[in-house]
Amino acid sequence: MNRLKLIQRSLSYFWKTNLALLLGLMAGTAVITGALIVGDSVRHSLIETSLARLGKVDVTLHTPRFFREELATEISGAGDDDKTVTAAPLIALNTSLVREEDEQIRRANNTNLFGITAESWKMLEVGEIAPPAEDEILLNSRLAGELNIKVGDELSAWVELPSTIPRESLLGKREDTSTEIRYTVREIIPEQIGASRFAFTPNQQLPRTCFVSLDSLQDSLDLSQVEATRRNPESRPARINSLLVTGFYGNEEPSGPEDVRVTNSLKEMKGRLKQHINLSDFHLKLRPHDEAGYVALESEQMFIETPVANAIQATAEELKLEKSPLLVYLANEISSAADPENYSMYSIVAGIDLSAQSPFGDFSFTSEEKPTTLGDNEIVLNAWLAEDLEANVGDKIDLKYHVVGSHGELPEASVSFTVAGIVAMEGGAVDRHLTPELKGITDAERFSDWDQPFPMKMERITYRDDSYWEEYRATPKAFISLDRAQSLWKSRYGQLTSYRVAPAGEDVPMGALTEQVRTTFLEKMNPEQLGIVFQPTRATGLAAAQGTNDFSQLFLAFSFFIILAALVLVSLLFKLSLERRASEVGLLMSVGYQNYHVRRQFLLEGFLLTSIGSLIGAILAVAYAGLMMYGLKTWWNQAVGTQNLDLYVNPVSIVSGMVVTGSLALIVIWRSLAVLNRRSPNALLSGRLESESNLLRQSAPIARWLCIGFGGVGLSLLLVGLLGLLPQQEAFGGFSWRVVSFFLVGFTLLVAFIAGFQMWLKRPDSTELKGARYSGFARLSLKNAMRHRQRSLLTVLLMSLATFIIVAVAAGRRNPTTELPELNSGNGGFTLLAESSLPILYNLNDSDGRDKAFLDPSKTGILQNVPTYAFRVQPGEEASCLNLYQTRLPTILGVPERFIDRGGFKFADTPGENPWQILKEKQDGAIPVIGDMNTLQYSLHVGLGDRIPMTDQRGIAHQLQVSGMLDGSVFQGVLLMSEDHFRELFPERAGYQYFLFDAPMAEMGEMTNVLETQLTEYGFDVEPVSERIAQFLAVQNTYLSTFQTLGGLGLLLGSFGLGTVMLRNVLERNSELALLRAVGVSSYGIGWMVLVENGFLLTCGLVSGMLAALLAMAPHLMSTGGDFPWGSTVVILGLIWIVGMLSALFAVYAAVKTPIVRSLRAL
């Protein structure tokens, strides 16, 4: 008989054992390969979702700054590589949708509103749906569900009105900042259509998205094209704030942002933008003043931004032009310090270089003093103002002006100057072009015609003030040095209001000079410095689809016990097979087979079984992966937040899973064959494969001391935790003392339990077996458990360890809705959280701010004693655990100083009594930020001290340094920096959109209703802080439930291993069992004895593991928020006990079917 024939005969003869071995291999392969398939499926689903979300869009441009709609047409066309690139216009805004239904108001806040054209609509995946017409709106299914709306119903969209002048500047418009637009729902876009998911940032959850006509939206927001007329000689182009670009990648998707095609596409779009962008897109005007002899660059924003100032300065230097930067400001009142009744209201003061020559200077002084430079406390008055104030050189004057506060308030400040000179009303002193044109102010004929940017004291305006305005308009009345003006009135938007250039001695026509300056300036000006930047949206979306978490690794971890149980089962079954064939092995070795021949024979059998089991397991892996994907869409859906998941089978993963499982199985089999080296042929012929080893050499006293010592330490630590004596700060590595205590208590108690069990196994027992029938057999079964001490101890140890982990993980669930507000907790002592779709400029803590926000005093009295903390918001990518996509830069919150000084919240591994103070100072040039531990570690993959690169709205690169880490806070998914640093990085972000309220719990409902109804136009959405934390913890709790379920399945499979151990015990004692049967013991008695031994070991393992876990988690379970799933845990452990007992029936069957005569002969 050759080797193959022997293998074939052996496999067929021992088919029962081999079948069990195959089942274990199939289970291991199915789980490992299935986990890999799950990871592939999630990644593939994210990729498909990202592609569907964008349709044909490759590159996008989105900026808060509105630019010309014609720019889309200008940058479209064939490129250098003959690819036709198409750019389509778009307006993208954040809005709040409101629908009134039977006296009930339904809201959908933080909604993406897109104004779209037919051309941009074609770029999206829209199926057969036509683009919206005028006054029509298309909603996705999420919005339709939240608003309970159907086709034909009407709704309102509250949208922020664009403002060229920053709202938080002196002349910015703070009232009537939003408008209500009525739309009729024409169609509801199904979730299966990609356009329903359209957004600039990736998220697997369905966003709130709606579409309207671009022309209609432009009309509502006053962004439509305006033709020049006699009354209004200046035309205005239609404006947008976004572009969609397609035509770069064709059918071959980019591999990521680093793909050379992506780099080339961005380079090309940057070049096209540079070629076609003009001053209007930057909100700039170049005004030639022929009579004055210079050209002035002005901004529609009033202030010239720093990048613009740098570009115009570089232009002047390159063209060798004379230059004169200028800053003007509105003074509320200028009065004589000696006689305050001599005053002038609402005068323009200019910061200027008096030494500048014509055409910028040419100031004629009426005083003897003719200063060319001014000190910080010196001022020059024009003759008109000097007459009003009855001021002379050397006199003191007081100047009052508004300062812009953090909440848009305008407190009045005062500064004193000494008159250094008086200029005549001629030449440069009467140049009204020193003040930039500002519609509604500089074109008004009198003060009463002003479009007042703030409440003016009209009753104090004198006849002389009116006369001056009628004759000279906004011509400055006073002059100070530019440096002093900038120190008083510079803002985060800039520190100049105009920049004048003129030829250096040459006579150049103004038209030619203007064009020369325009061309050179556009060459110098980088659009990216003003936030006009193309983004590789498609490439970044595909790269982000790799996911924050690798679901292959995640499900391998979840299925760890299943894999381990399968491998242990394979080992036990193979050893069982060897024991049953021990005499066969002894015979082969007695007739001349060498040890390595026999081992190779068994290894070949194992290889064949492994190959078959892995192949069948790979087929089952698809079914297992399908079950897991179904679970992610149903039972565990809170972990992924989407139903848009499809099974995707990658052959590489199947082969990898088969190879990995087969390799692990062969290693286990090879290790099991090592026992053949330790036994002689004679011993093997007797049917004994191995003797009881004595690996556990500890004496009973050592085990006793282990039990007492570790048990005492564990119970002491448990008492410390229950009494709340553990330190609140972090221990090390981001772990709190509470977490360290859990591990120590669990470890010590588990060691104590196992040591106690070992003491019982090693105790001397010479007691007689007493008891009638089953009680006597039960005592005998316990003695049998003591016979194979190592085997029994390892069985209980493995079962208890697995049970401990499963129960402890289940006990780690939290329910924050039951937690009370505490300063140093995840809620920081706050009860309510709110977000607004539109920014709120006013301070809700005082009555004046509430009045300006149009809150009804009769209904908002409840707010008077409730501290409110408002945060500025720079929108970014969703970086909480609710987003499966990788995140580059999350939303950033600007933290007010009041909040920093207040402190609070639970920190992880962050030193300091109030770690929030870290935010105030930069660290080696980096801006300090604080984030939640889950966001930092799992979404951004950074830790304390790491830096996050970012580029601000001016194209300047910055480094954000992680300086603090919150633990389980409401701030998951965002980064927090000080409000001062926020304004520095994001000067265009006005107002506040994130709020925390320290409201009494009894008043939460009433306060929520008041805020949401009174602030409807802002899209104010209030929710309990506990519910927001619960949303974040839903992911964590779902993962814990998943681990508990799959871990329970692993332990369930491990219980079959316990049955295998019992079967080995029975086979080793078959002679003894035969003797018992020969002297009259019934089969029922034998079966009862085997079942009691199995049940004893099983119960010891489950109970010791469960008790250690529950005691270790006792401080958490007894704290507010502890949420132990008793029901599912009892069901899982009960099922494991039942299956473990049923698996012992194989051992029972072998015990009662043992041939008596043959077994007795072996005695």
**Hey, roughly how much beta strand do the residues contain?**
15-25%
As for the number of domains, it is 4
Oligomer: single chain
The main pleated sheet reads as: 9 strands, mixed
What global shape is seen?
elongated
The helix fraction, in percent, is: 40-55%
- Can you count the beta strands? 30
Number of helical regions: 35
* Beginning-to-end CA distance, first to last residue: 33 Å
Radius of gyration using CA atoms only: 40 Å
Explain this structure to me?
The chain has 1163 residues and is an alpha+beta fold. It has four domains: 1-55 and 558-691, no CATH class; 59-277, no CATH class; 280-531, no CATH class; 816-1032, no CATH class. The chain is built from 35 helices and 30 strands. The strands form four sheets. A nine-stranded mixed sheet has the order 26-27-25-28-24-23-29-22-30. A six-stranded mixed beta barrel has the order 3-4-8-5-7-6. The protein has a six-stranded mixed beta barrel with strand order 12-13-17-14-16-15. The longest helix has 44 residues, at 1025-1068. The model is unreliable at 692-698 (pLDDT under 50).
